[in-house]
Aminotransferase class I/II-fold pyridoxal phosphate-dependent enzyme
Amino acid sequence: MGRERTGRQERGQAGYGAPGVREDRGPVRYGPPAPAPGLPVLPELAEVLATAAGSGVPEPAGGSAALRDAARAYWDRRGLHGGSEHVAAAPGTSSLLLALIAAHGGDVLMPRPCPAAWIPQARLLGRPAYHVPTPAECGGVPDPYALLETVRRVRAEGGRPRLLLISVVDDPTATVAPPELVREACEAAVAEGLHIVSDETWRDTLHRPHDTVLLSPAEMCPDDVTVISDLSGALTPSAWPVAVARFPDTGRAAVRHARTLDILTALGAFVAGPVAAAAAHALREPDAVTERARRAAAMQARVAAAAHRAVLASGALARPPQAGRHLYADLGPLRSRLAARGVTDSLELEEYLTERLGTPVPGGHRFGDELGALRVRLGTGPLLGSTPRQQMESLTAAEPLELPHVVAALNNFRAALDELR
């Protein structure tokens, strides 16, 4: 349960200049995007964006009052109350997280595995970053005892752990952390003087929302948690980058909020005006937006369950997906068959499955896992169809798994895995 530092000295953390890893290997150089929805843009949002496209007025740093108030109301409906003066917006999670890490200072801790966007931000700032193991039942939140041990060891070696990144609804594992684990991990972090950044991008993609208990860390530690959310998780298209952050209502958080705005300004990280208008509309959650999110989550639940069954049938392992549009598979049990095909690490597995499936299949090294672990994130968006018409049929069908194009895509998915049995 010792500390595990991310860095270029680890061959498993493929990136620019990583020793022993060709820079041209893999379909992405530094980190893959979030799992694609595989659905057309909601017409209502497209109309809002098009209407706003005629305005040449730029958004201010941190977002306009309209965007920030819409985000405030969005969180208020989820039990996280506060004023819009404690909200900041940026063009996507990467720039927002970069500004937050820079504003807080110190070393960064994060679970292993973790979202691909997290590691590059700490590296770009030259910040020491340490991975903490997660429990067997879920990803996104570190094991509390491993967290305490990691903090102790980092401090013993002269480090300054200041920030813990977690995702209660997780990418890449597609799991939801149990409330008791969230509470124990947050209490441990706060007791050690860590500030928590809770990435809740996927909270509105629960496959079974009425059967899943979701607890935000900000509900239990309101003075010690900053919440961030990329709206592409459930509300807006990924091609329209916008993310929002909710800061605590404390004097210390006000200083960090101001510092975050300074950094976003220095980066030129402003939300595009038309995108801000569409994002504010989505955050107000009109019927069309909520209905699209509900239908998409229900459909992804069925498709992801079918993909999960295919993974298990091949002899590989994966936790049952509970949210999002992906699952995280461990092909370690198929190591000998993969080795016969020249696949011995997650980089080679990424290349092999990407070519075989015809869609990006990022390896576990992109998410902080060891290079030798044969893990991949499998997106379910490509299973919904290759054209807008097919995708809409998948969204609206009573039995999407019976649609010919979904059947064909799942058959190809199963075949790629069955070849390794």
